[in-house]
Amino acid sequence: MISTALTYRYIYISLHQGQIRCRGAGRIQFLRYEDYKDCGETNDCDIYFKSLVIRDGNDNTLFKIDLTTTTKNTNTVNLTRVEELRDPITIHFPTNKTVTISLKVWDNDHQNSDDFIKSWTNVVVPFSDLEANETARTKISHSPLTSENAYLTFEYSVLSCDDGYTGRGCNYCRDKVHSYFHGSCTCEYTNF
Asked: Do 150 and 124 form a contact (C-beta atoms < 8 A)?
């Protein structure tokens, strides 16, 4: 005869052998860059982005562009017309992990050394605020305390969630393990 303690232990081990894979797919579309401070009303900037990087909460690079095409004589850039940013960027993110954008903006001076204009660091893309197949748009200010400013506008959406996800924006891993010990879901934080 097997004791009750041994029976419970066997149930606990057998129900916790597998891991639930939790991954989500999202999309980011850069739309517009505006700079009325450094480029002024005279439209005198030849703007390009350098080191545009999208990372997850573990500092893994999900997407990177080293250098974009330079735009000519402008203070406003339609980013859907910049070759490297024309198409939406699809990324894959793990559950409960932050996705951030960092980039540097430069002015091409052609004959002289280029001028650094400004940078954004670790701008959070809140995928967890969205349901699957929902899209949101955000316009972020570089320096909210000044009247003359620069803005970056982009859209983001959650495309799909693995079966292991539940909740808005694929932000919770569903507990598929039920036992007397109330075992919790184990998620693989793996980008694909």
From this structure: no
* pTM, entire model: 0.77
Q: How far, in whole angstroms, is CA 115 from its chain's centroid?
A: 27
CB atoms within 10 A of CB 57: 14
- Residue 181 contacts residue 12 (beta carbons within 8 Å): yes
How far apart are the C-alpha atoms of 146 and 155, rounded to whole Å?
24
Q: Is the pLDDT of residue 27 over 60?
A: yes
- From first CA to last CA, the distance across the chain in angstroms is 48
Listed by start position, the domains of the chain span: 19-188
CB atoms within 10 A of CB 119: 14
CATH of domain 19-188: 2.60.40.150
pLDDT digits over 128-144, tens only?
A: 888 888 999 999 888 76
Q: Which helix (H) or strand (E) is 30 found in, with range?
A: strand 23-35
Q: In the predicted model, what is the mean pLDDT of residues 19-40?
A: 84
User: What is the DSSP code (8-state) at residue 149?
Assistant: -
Cα 162 from Cα 191, distance rounded (Å): 12
Pairing verdict, β 89-94 and 23-35: antiparallel
Amino acid at 176: K
Q: What is the largest CA-CA distance in the chain?
A: 89
Handedness of CA 31, 33, 36, 150 (dihedral sign): positive
